[in-house]
Design a protein that fits this description.
The chain is of the alpha/beta class. The protein has 2 domains: 8-150, no CATH class; 161-295, Trna Endonuclease, Chain: A, domain 1 (3-Layer(aba) Sandwich), CATH 3.40.1350.10. Helix content is 54%, strand content 11%. The chain has helices at 8-21, 25-35, 52-65, 67-82, 98-113, 124-159, 164-181, 221-232, 250-254, 268-275, 281-295, and strands spanning 188-193, 196-203, 206-213, 239-244, 263-267. The protein has a 5-stranded mixed beta sheet, with helices on both faces. Helix 3 crosses helix 4 (67-82). It is elongated.
């Protein structure tokens, strides 16, 4: 079977353009996976330890070496990367304008190297219908990652704020933004009493009361009992989520009081796992609820 020859200059231009259109390696990886059909090859590349340029170069070289498998995928990458014209996702990282400028130049160079490649490639028309959908998926994920970065930064800013009242207001906004990002918007606004924040949300068909504290002492068992009393006064299936940034006392976590068996607990380390993108907010709530149902332990420490 004859394959359309892709010039060395076009391959070099493709590597350069791919290395510049996204700042994060995980966003670039997703772009490639959504563009090509034989996406299993993407997982054979080391995206963690290697530089972005190295990972892309190895990936493209492996595809070039097997035109019997990756010919159409290479052409798809050439076309989709050459059609790239929205660089707004780079603005968050582009302090001096060089990132966007370099990305535009690399894509323009690729276009010049690939003129006329696609006139007779009928298979590529199939990919065109999915192009806009894939771009929207990537944009959504890039936005999500950037919002998490912003929330993480806000979290650190709150940590160094010595004004308790201001810290309470900042934490209120942070949690509102976090729950909204994961589409777990609270049913009512958080109400601040000192540094205590109360609210309610629905997750997986279950109504939750929410209580959160950021103080310099471990939350004692008495606070958990008080929260348990609030939950008991609601409908039978209502549960509670208690967030204590600085953690909980041992007597609160390990007691067997029935008032505490209606809640799950989260601490600052749990929040950092969410801000770092290691786990989603909805996933951590689900895991903690499942663990509590199976073991009776209200504080499940994720690794």
């Amino acid at each position: 079977m004859a394959f359309q020859k892709i010039s060395t200059q076009a391959i070099i231009a493709l590597k350069d353009a791919l290395s510049n259109i996204y700042w994060r390696k995980k966003d670039l990886r997703q772009f490639v996976e959504l563009t090509i059909e034989n996406s299993a090859i993407v997982s054979t590349i080391d995206w963690q330890e290697q530089l972005k340029q190295e990972s892309i170069s190895i990936l493209i070289d492996r595809m070039v070496a097997r035109p019997d498998i990756f010919q159409n995928d290479l052409l798809r990458l050439l076309q989709e990367t050459g059609n790239f014209n929205d660089f707004s996702h780079l603005q968050y990282f582009d302090k001096d304008g060089n990132l966007i400028k370099r990305a535009k130049q690399a894509v323009e160079k690729l276009r010049n190297q690939t003129k006329g490649y696609f006139d007779a490639i009928e298979e590529l028309k199939k990919a065109e219908a999915k192009r806009e959908e894939n771009i929207q998926i990537i944009k959504s994920n890039v936005y999500f990652s950037q919002k998490l970065e912003e929330l993480k930064k806000a979290f650190f800013e709150i940590a160094i704020n010595s004004n308790k009242q201001n810290r309470g207001f900042q934490l209120e906004k942070l949690l509102n933004d976090l729950f909204t990002l994961f589409e777990l918007s609270t049913k009512s606004s958080f109400k601040i009493i000192g540094e205590q924040i109360d609210g309610a949300f629905t997750f997986d068909g279950t109504d939750f009361l929410l209580e959160a504290k950021w103080q310099k002492i471990l939350v004692p068992a008495s606070d958990l009992y008080a929260f348990g009393g609030k939950i008991t006064n609601k409908l039978k299936n209502t549960l509670g989520l208690f967030i204590s940034v600085d953690g909980f006392s041992k007597d609160g976590i390990e007691n067997n009081n029935p008032l505490t068996k209606q809640m799950i607990l989260m601490d600052g380390e749990d929040l950092m796992m969410i801000f770092d993108g290691r786990i989603r907010l909805d996933e951590i709530i689900l895991l903690k609820r499942q663990h509590a149902s199976q073991t009776g332990e209200i504080f499940y420490k994720l690794k």
